Amino acid sequence: MTDYPNMLAPLDLGFTTLKNRVLMGSMHTGLEETGDWNRVAEFYADRARGGVALMVTGGIGPNLEGSVLPGAAMMTSEKEVEKHKIVTERVHEAGGKIAMQILHAGRYAYGPKCVAPSPVKSPISPFPPTELDEEGIEKQISDIINAATLAKEAGYDGVEVMGSEGYFINQFLVTHTNKRTDRWGGSYENRMRLPIEIVRRMRAAVGTDFIIIYRLSMIDLVPNGSTYDEVVQLAKEIEKAGATIINTGIGWHEARIPTIATSVPRAAFAWVTKKLMGQVSIPVITSNRINTPEVAEEVLSTGCADMVSMARPLLADPDFVAKAMDGHAARIAPCIACNQACLDHTFGGKLTSCLVNPRACHETELVIDSAETPKTVAVVGAGPAGLSAALTADARGHSVTLFDRADEVGGQLNIAKQVPGKEEFWGLVDWYREMLAASGVTLKLGTDVAADDLTGLDEVIVATGVTPRDPQIPGQDGDNVLTYIDVLGAKAPVGKRVAVLGAGGIGFDVSEFLAHEGTSPTEDLPAWMKEWGVSDPETHRGGLAPEGPQPHAAARDITLLQRKAEKHGKRLGKTTGWIHRAALKMKDVQFVGGVNYEKIDGDGLHVSFGEARETPQVIEADTVVLCTGQEPERSLADALAAKGITAHVIGGADVAAELDAKRAINQGTRLAASL
Ligand code: FAD
Ligand code: NAP
Ligand code: SF4
To answer: How far apart are alpha carbons 622 and 558 in whole angstroms?
Structure first.
């Protein structure tokens, strides 16, 4: 008997059956654009082997004007069909099913040729779109149908029509972007003509035994978005037009409400999808922040949807479903929803990967095979760098001992997990603990390792992390001065008025921690919705609360300072930095930049501005918290070098600048894969 009877139940689609209720949602990985179709095939085949019922590819453009970027993958000709066949054949050999997503980006397309229902520029692209005429609309429809026909020829089990997230089809649906007065604009009947025409003509073109998933925006989260009645009306028409499944989308890309970041509660929008259940008779899929089998089962057993879509969790662990089936759910590498190696890479023009699993999208290049010669390996430091090195070395057959002076594994992840909105880090540390228990690694906690303890080994890996940087500010030894470790680790008492020095990732996190009191909104869905101004789309168009965001009052008066004159948080994650900035602004945290730190005394922090150290000012504060960066902890590495013992130095101990868990895990895994 499984713990996940709903998640693992098959789904009969009439002409074919899905083996369980897990769909891998579409992700733009950048793999198709590498031109290495073997690599693309291996990425999907790996996930097919891991048991997911149906996968949706990243968005494939139906033509040049609709492609997300110039050079992005398209499905327009027989030449492309041949490449995609490599993928579909490999997936089918692995026992999986795969649908190709057809993505027409409309005004979100990052190119001068972009088109839209009306010439309304999007806030997330510099290119104003050209308004389509009747002939232009007809061309878009026939290009989309052509892409579906070619997808069938390439061996796909179906297609997904991207009709949500503010892309082309969505742009026709709402008056916010559709100002037309012809038969494609004006009344809702006219505005929804495009998706209905697409699905109707597509079904006629591809026949009955081919999956058509329609991705429907359930809650736009933008001004003048669709009403609930409009969404239901469209869903019914899409069913009539011939769709097999409705996959629900949440929020336009330009929405100013986070929808998938780590601070969003798990399954935060499943209740929205539930509103569609019973309104249509085809299966309905829900998504967003579902990252464990428990959450998936809860969502399905409470009738929120017929299937769940998980995208990033399948980057973190391709064997998600297989491990749940085998009773090893605790061994599923958790997606912590950080976006650091997936969406931040995509938006930075880099190939997608995963912070937790550096093999994601690198399956053919980062191979973890059995070592030719098993060795004795000591790893010092059980932070993410040391943990990933130890587990990878063990997986390859080496005899590994992992040391840490602390009484628990995780290193700085144990500090990060204290921050409200970063609760997922608890699961990451738990996962490492579980994987160590299941491995052959000998774990020695509470053990301060010196160079003399590391003789006679084949390989020594130093992963001793970082120490806080000493900013050398006069008065920093006072009782009113703490480091981020005192605040987050030791939970030292902090006064009502606080100056936080250093506006890097840690300065932001410390400010977030100090602004909060009580339960984190990430663990309290109604509180989170209130904080961000999310409402029921049945009562408010687009799901936006008319009163806007209503955050709870900040627990302290906080000033967050940096020496640079640039915008606060400029170097935070590309897709999440705005959330951190907005969250602190909502709590009235004051951002002060371009300062010199003159001294700290009983009044607080004394600063001046500019090179001439002008306009002295006192930031009155009961407590000053230092978040002024980090330096490598190299005392062990230096001692080993002095004794002539060769060691590999990784993670923060190697380079502290711009260090994060992504780099630490990647470096640890790659080193161990090469030993
Ligand atoms: P560490 O995690 O520092 O681990 C080093 C370990 O070595 C420690 O456990 C230490 O006890 C042990 N050690 C040191 N010397 C010895 C010795 N001689 N003998 C035995 N043991 C020893 N990163 C992200 O990617 N995303 C985030 O959102 C994020 N948020 C963060 C929030 C906060 C508040 C903090 C503090 C950090 C955050 N980070 C984040 C950074 C991330 O945690 C670090 O980059 C990462 O932990 C560094 O990994 P590491 O293995 O090199 O070192
Ligand atoms: P950081 O991002 O490098 O920020 C350090 C801050 O200290 C900067 O704002 C810097 O700004 C200031 N500073 C540097 N040297 C100083 C000095 N000598 N005196 C006074 N101020 C000084 O490092 P961090 O905040 O310590 O974070 C460490 C790493 O953890 C980061 O690289 C980050 O990637 C990771 N992290 C990530 C996240 C995330 O959400 N992704 C969250 C937390 C941490 P000025 O020089 O302008 O003053
Ligand atoms: Fe999840 Fe972060 Fe990995 Fe992206 S990088 S898949 S958000 S854990």
So the answer is: 10
Q: How remote is the CA of residue 569 from the centroid of ligand 2, in Å?
A: 10
Residue among 113, 244, 115, 230 nearest 168 (CA): 115
Q: What does the pLDDT average to over 142-161? A: 98
Tell me 485's DSSP state.
I
pLDDT classification of 223: cutoffs 50, 70, 90: very high
Domain of 570 in residue numbering reads as: 481-516+554-628
One-letter amino acid for residue 340 of the chain: Q
Residue carrying structure tokens 């897990």: 22
174 and 244 fall within a common domain: yes
**Distance from CA of residue 460 to its chain's centroid?**
34
Average pLDDT on 48-55 reads: 98
> Max CA-CA distance within the chain?
81
Which tokens is 657 given?
Answer: 């600048």
CA–centroid distance, residue 34 to ligand 3 (Å):
21
CATH number at residue 190: 3.20.20.70
Has residue 125 been placed in a domain? yes
Which atom of ligand 3 lies at the shortest distance from residue 662's CA? Answer: 5
Q: Based on the residue annotation, tell me whether 432 is a catalytic residue of this protein.
A: no
Do the beta carbons of residue 296 and residue 284 sit within 8 Å?
no
Does 507 reside within a domain? yes
Give the tens place of pLDDT for each residue, 567-596: 999 999 999 999 999 999 999 999 999 999
Tell which residue, 126, 128, 76, has the closest CA to residue 104. Answer: 76
Q: Is residue 260 part of a domain?
A: yes
Is 573's C-beta closer than 6 angstroms to any atom of ligand 2?
yes
Q: Report how far residue 284's alpha carbon sits from residue 143's, in angstroms, rounded to the nearest whole number.
A: 26
Torsion of CA 114, 120, 122, 127, to 10 degrees: 40
Final residue belonging to a domain, choices 261, 277, 306: 306
Could you give the CA distance from residue 31 to residue 28 in angstroms, rounded to a whole number?
8
| CATH code for the domain in which residue 392 is found | 3.40.50.720
Report residue 71's pLDDT band, with 50, 70 and 90 as the boundaries. Answer: confident
pLDDT in tens, 250-302: 999 999 999 999 999 999 999 999 999 999 999 999 999 999 999 999 999 99
Instruction: Select from 626, 629, 630 the least CA-distant residue to 499.
Output: 626
Q: In what order do the strands lie in the sheet with 604-609?
A: 595-601, 604-609, 614-620
More confident residue, 307 or 658: 307
Count of domains observed in the chain: 3
pLDDT tens for each residue of 543-558? 999 999 999 899 999 9
* Average pLDDT of span 326-354: 96
Looking at the chain, the whole-number percentage of residues with pLDDT higher than 90 is 96
Q: Average model confidence (pLDDT) for the chain?
A: 97
Which pLDDT does position 488 carry in this prediction? 97
Catalytic residue among 167, 228, 432, 597: 167
Q: What is the pLDDT of residue 463?
A: 98
Does any domain span residue 30?
A: no
Give the whole-angstrom CA distance, residue 293 versus residue 324: 7
Map residue 102 onto helix, strand or coil: strand
Q: What is the rounded average pLDDT of the residues 222-233?
A: 95
Mutate to test the pocket of ligand 1, among 355, 464, 576 (most ligand atoms within 8 A of CB): 464
* Nearest-CA residue for atom 8 of ligand 3: 335
Which residue, among 77, 94, 75, has the nearest Cα to 24 in the 3D structure? 94
* pTM for this predicted structure: 0.96
Of 86, 94, 100, 101, nearest to 47 by C-alpha is 94
| Contact (CB, 8 A) for 321 and 643 | no
Angle between helices 424-438 and 384-395 (to 10 degrees): 30
What's the whole-number mean pLDDT along residues 524-553? 95
What is the rounded CA–CA span in Å between residue 502 and residue 481? 14
